[in-house]
Amino acid sequence: MNASFLRDVREGLSQQAKSLAPKWLYDERGSELFEAITKTADYYLTRTEAEIMRTAYGELPAHVPPGCAIAEFGSGAGIKSRRLIEALKPSVYVSIDVAEEFLTASCEKLSRMFPDTDVQGVLADFSGQVALPESFFAAPQRMGFFPGSTIGNFAKGGAETFLAKSRESLGDGSMFLIGADLVKDEDVLLAAYDDSDGITRLFTKNLLVRMKHELDAELDLDGFEAVALWNPTEARLELGVVAQGPQTIRLGSDVFPLENGEMIHTENSHKFTPDSFSALGERAGWKVRTHWTDSQGWFGVFLLEAA
Asked: What pLDDT was estimated at residue 74?
């Protein structure tokens, strides 16, 4: 039994406002479901960022010299970093991830693809302080890389903390290339996070499935409905599962009752404006050097530099 998973679930369900950490959405099944979400017609984020990156990669060499060092936070398979390595030809690429076997396999593959780049892996949770290898700091320029819209998934105040810790990890004179989803029409946002095929709902409820299978939790899967709600005050999507009538979740001797309509929060997805993202960066010790967006202004890629 996964002790960390069990501890987090017990702690999250014990709170007055129940919540579960979004990282537990991603077992093998969860990762497959998320990949399917990115291919739905309404999920604009992945393809829009890819469109912007094609422009950004062409212009980045004017800001970041060849031979630089790149550190990717939460790199996964390193698929997005491949185009970046091709564009900047870094001397060092550091992959940061929490999944050891996945990290090793990814680094081995990137090493074969880019023999002129020193590819290294750092096993770490990127939300904490990350110690980068000495070779990273020997490069003439250092840059962090955080693609996707993960910067929006932190709890309130978490994005600023992450950026401040990354500023410390990357050091003075460093840069940071970050993808961030932008505020747009509510209907577009809700369609992206509650697709008509119901894949996002399966993805959200996968956390409950994992609790049953991995923690022997007693709960009625049909007694919960996955939801996505737009909070305009906080400029974020709030995802979770809502009890359909009174429900009870049992974990061993622990019993967690839920009232009808009570929500277990699983994930936030904050949205930004260029100004709000710039202000966020400044509070954490960064300033925007330049940024790119798509023709509709739906997504932004920001190049920050240490202030």
From this structure: 86
Instruction: Find out whether 200 and 194 touch, Cβ atoms under 8 Å.
Output: yes
**Mean pLDDT, the chain, integer:** 94
Instruction: Give CA–CA dist 213/223, Å, rounded.
Output: 17
- Is the CB of residue 280 less than 8 Å from the CB of residue 159? yes
Torsion angle of C-alpha atoms 197, 198, 200, 201, degrees rounded to 10: 180
In this predicted structure, what is the pLDDT of residue 26? 84
Write the CB contacts of 199 (distance below 8 Å, at least 6 apart in sequence).
Answer: 33, 36, 37, 40
For the chain, the DSSP string reads: --HHHHHHHHHHHHSSS-B--GGGG-SHHHHHHHHHHHTSTT--HHHHHHHHHHHHHHHGGGTS-TT-EEEEET-TT-HHHHHHHHHH--SEEEEEES-HHHHHHHHHHHHHH-TTSEEEEEES-TTS-----HHHHTSSSEEEEE-TTGGGSSPTTHHHHHHHHHHHHH-TT-EEEEEEEB---HHHHHHHHS-TT-HHHHHHHHHHHHHHHHH--B--GGGEEEEEEEETTTTEEEEEEEESSSEEEEETTEEEEE-TT-EEEEEEEE-B-HHHHHHHHHHTTEEEEEEEE-TTS-EEEEEEEE-
Distance CA 242, CA 228 (A): 10
Relative to beta strand 247-251, strand 254-258 is antiparallel
Looking at the chain, the whole-number percentage of residues with pLDDT higher than 70 is 99
Largest CA distance in the chain: 60
Decide if pLDDT at 75 tops 90: no
pLDDT beyond 90 at 222: yes
pLDDT digits (tens, 9 = 90+) for 152-203: 988 878 999 999 999 999 999 999 999 999 999 999 999 999 999 999 999 9
